[in-house]
Each structure stands twice: as structure tokens, then as C-alpha cells.
Automatic annotation (TrEMBL):
Species in which this protein is naturally found: Kinneretia aquatilis
Protein name in the entry: Efflux RND transporter periplasmic adaptor subunit
Gene Ontology cellular component annotations, sorted alphabetically: efflux pump complex
Residue span, CzcB-like C-terminal circularly permuted SH3-like domain: 303-364
Signal peptide feature range: 1-33
Sequence similarity: Belongs to the membrane fusion protein (MFP) (TC 8.A.1) family.
Amino acid sequence: MPHTVTRRARQLSALALVFPLVALLGACGMQEAAPEPERAVRTLTLQSASSGQVHEYAAEVRARVESRLSFRVGGKVLSRKVNVGDRVQAGQVLAVIDPQDLVLGQQAAKAGLQAARANRDQLGAELKRFIELQQQGFISAAELERRDLAFKAAQAQLEQARTQFEAQNNQVAYAQLTADAAGVVTAVFAEPGMVVGAGTPVLQLAHDGPRDVVFSVPEDQLGRLREAAGLPGGLTVRLWSEIKPGAADAAPSHALSLREVSAATDPVTRTFQIKADAGKLDARIGQTAAVLLSSPRVAEVIKLPLSAVLQTQGQTSVWVLEPGTMTVKQQPVQVGGADGNEVVVAAGLKPGQEVVVAGVHVLKAGQKVKRYEQALPAAASAAASR
């Protein structure tokens, strides 16, 4: 019994020590969280400005007329006399195929022509004699008619043989591929030793003459393209070779006139191919360029840096600073487009408001902030203190 009393006394004394410790820990856990520190943010006071959107598309200078040349007859390519980039003149021989079979056909057609001519001459002489015999009464009129029909058939066969001979002469001439017009060779599709069929492309020739600036635009920009094409200076081009590093705006621009809009989109890119008349643009075939679509300038709009815009749950918004309480609130806005690296706000803001333009992703509604002040260098701060 004394031992039992002693054990219980020890347990009670241990519990007496534990209860104060638990109470102390509970009191520590109930302490209030430390207030969030004020965040320094960059702000911008909104002002009205004018905006004119400019869209830029990569383009290429091409010849207005560009044709793929091919042989009219098939055969083995013996030689190709031009390469990509060579300038050619109208009538110049570009490639030659083996004419051996064509020459044999020409010789056969010539022999057929000679045989038809001899047959016609023989029947013509016989007809002349039978006319005299019929006049003397030695043969009937029916016999003379039969001889006349035979002569006419021989004459028709001669004309047929002559036509075949001329066609075969043309076939021999087709063994040489010649340029239809002066221009520049832009592609080669056949090499010596290849057997090509009639109509198989061998060369691609860009004809001298007008030039086009070719580019592609998405389908939602077709209306903007037609609008820009109807404005003075709305559709211009800059050659990449004339653009200096860091001075793209200083590159000379040249006016374009819209010439052709594709009737259907490209099945892969889903864009429309556009051809614009380059006019007096001094450019070589294949040069790259930048086409600029400029829309009319709109006055009294609000523009913000891209860093000021926040996208949350499909809604575009910005943080507006309340100067009285130095807190921020989230303000939904409607974006009307882009002007260079700035966003044009169509609705939701008004001039005079102060908007956070940096650090927007770490702010919360009602959070206290302070305006960011850039620290001065040590020498400047010392001079300012004086």
C-alpha cells in the first residue's frame, strides 16, 4: 500500500509539470501572424495618347511571271547548259535531249513523203493518158472517173505524208529546250543522264519585267490588309538588306499596291498568300523583305506596357493604385490591340489613374505598397546631401 501511494504521487507531480508546458505552447501558437511587408512597385500615371497599329510580315521578292520549262518530247537528257542564277536571253538553248530516235522518225517520214509523191506523179501521168483515150472513144467515162478518183486519193496521201514529215521535223527541233523570254534561272529539276517524259519540268525561269512582293497573312487580318491597302502609305515594304542593326525604323520604306489575294488558304499554315506590286522597288529576285500594314491613327487612347497586364481566369486586368490608402485593387480592362511593345486599352481605365507596371504577379487585392524609388549612386547621394 505505501508503494502504491508513492507511485500515484509521482504521476500527479509529473502531470503538474506537463500542463503548464502545454498551456505555454498553446499561447505561442495563438500569436498573430506578422503583417506583410509593403512591396515596392513601379507605377505609371495614365495619359491620353494616339495609337496607330502596325503589323509586320516577312515577304519575298518574286518575278511576276515565273514558268517551269519542259521538253515537248521525251528522251534522255544529254546536256544542261545553264545553272541556277544564270541570266538567259530569249531563244537561248538551255538543255538538249538525245535526238537519235527523233531523227530516225524524221527520216522515215521523209521516205514516206517521197513515196507518196512518186505514187501521185505516176497516177497523174496515167490519168492524163486515160483522158486522151476517153476523148478518142477507146474507154468509157466510168473508167476515166475511176482513174480520176485514184489520182485524188494519191494527192491526199501526199498531203498527209508532207504533214507528217513537217511534224517530225518539229519533233527533232523539240530535242532542244530554249528560253521563251529573257530572265533568270531560279531552279533546276533535271540533270544529264536522266530520262524525262514530255512535260516533265526541267528548269524554272523567272522572266524579266515586273516584280511582286509575296507574303502571307492569317485569315483574320484580311480586312485589315484591304483597309491598309486603301490608305496612302498604308502598305509599305522594307528590304532586309537595307535594315541596319538597331535602326530598323530608319530603313527606307517603299509603297506597295495590292495586286492579288489568294482565293483559298494554305492547307498547312491556314494563311492567305498575298501578291503586291513592287512598283519601282530596286530588288533582286529572292530578296527578303518586311511588309508593314499600317492602320489609321486613333487619338485619345490609353496605352500600357505589356508588363502591366495580368491574365487571370480568362480575364485581362491591371492593378490600380489607390493613393489615399496606398493599396492596390484589381481592375478588369478590355484590350483593343497592340501598338509596338505597348497594349492599347479600349475600356476600363481613364487618364489620371496610377497603374502598377512591374511585379503584377505577386500582388494581392488590398495589399499595401509603396512607390519604387531607384537608389542613387554613392557619389550622387553625397552631392545631394550637400
